[in-house]
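Example record

The entry below shows one chain as it appears in the dataset: sequence first, then structure tokens.
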Amino acid sequence: MSHAQSAVSLMAPVGPVAESFVNDERLITAIMGPYGSAKTTSCIRKAVLMTLWQNPGPDGVRRSRGCIVRDTYGQLETNVLESWFTWFPKDMPGSTWNGRQMRHTVRMRVALMDGQPPVEIEMDVYFRAMGDQKAEDVLKGLELTWLWLNEVDTLDKSVLQFGLPRCGRYPSTKDGGCRWYGVIADFNAPDEDNWTYELLVEQKLPVDEKALEALRAKVGDRYGIGFHKQPGGLEPDAENKRNLPDGYYEGLIASGMPEHHINRFVHNRFGSVFSGQRVFPEYNTEIHRASYELEAKPDLPLLFGLDGGRTPALVIAQLDDELDQLRLLDEVVLYDPEKTTQLRRLGARAFGERCAMVVADRYPECVPGVLFYDPAIDFGTEEDGYDFLAEFLEEFPVERNSPGGDPGNRIEPRLSAVRKRLTRLKGGEPSLLVSPRAKVLHRGYSKRYILERVTIGKGSNATGRFRSIPVKNDESHVCDAAGELMLGLQNRPVMINRLGGWQRGGSMRSQGGKVDYGDGYFAHRGRA
């Protein structure tokens, strides 16, 4: 057990705010801090402490069962699991790792600070990612002591609504019973209109007053929300600086981070959102727009993002696995020839035919792979939604197709998927590169895809709060199409991995023919 004990002894406090969070026994507790402030480490320390808070079983062991939830499995593996295994390796004595269940059971002895003999504990921990699943399905059947919502601002608030009732169900009476239970969370400062602001700053649980009274009666003094805001990274009392390289935060600022992100990720301030603000201030023309028209690679399948409805748009892309770079090659966005500022409304069949002709003409050596589309056109929230998708696919056949997100078609997961690519580099190369062919997409990302503030609720149901949503305009449709593609790649990578078995005389190519584009938007300018 020496390995386990040494791992625990390394978990020293990183600062007074983080330590206050770790020791807070209230029902819901959260820590918000800048990059590098040891929020994840503090949550891991709290996982140990939440186990120590339990009554010992007949064998003297104190037990807890937890679940750590993240937005995607990719983020879960590269962030949460990497940190968790730093403290509790898979092969440490007394631990059992089940990769299929994503479950780690850790048994160890913990030395207490008061000089008392070491205490034996057992933590049984599940790791889950939301992806495009419903919180109810992700958490169904779990009997937990605690729930940890990692980067809680990236999750839907339903994870709290369905997660809190799963807590307090373990350990059983025969193992000492559950003395303490609750939810913990960590996050960087989000925008003010994120649901976590109302929950943590305004202390409003998303339940009615009758339910709150019942909760107060049940948990007593532990009722409440503990919100712990760490100092900004450049403040004199910034936490965990001893574990960061000199000039860490100054380097973040010097890297060209947008002011909006500096406020959130360096200074730990909630982001202000205003009408007219770009949806993606992270988009940098010098970084994310290629200086030349990107060539398609014949050995890679074409990937598509579709926004349907009465003003449809399609983006055409390829994924470079080695760089993890999504290369947005092209777009299909049609303009009324007499009004260059308004999109032409085109039916599904006609739009599908036009898209197929563009692909056949411009990318004859490439095979159509996966189409990710707006769930609204499949689940019927758009007018004639199902007919649009079916008719479009009759004219635009692909090997596989799938909605990018879930049936609820929530905006934030789609925007988050784009932001992750805009803020990621690998080998000095951006994870998103836009070809000059995609003119409308570039115009949207650089200046026209903007936010508007709308009131939450109407009339007597008005809350006095606002939320920010993208404005529907000529540029928004192709931006939404690109968002569906990136969300689909994030949530359903297995669809890309399973592509194969194509015939080079693919269906798009076999539709043949060159398209007469005239002097319109799709008129060729140089080599296709």
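Notes for this example: Residues 1-10, 379-386, 501-507, 509-528 have pLDDT under 50 and may be disordered. The longest strand covers residues 119-129.
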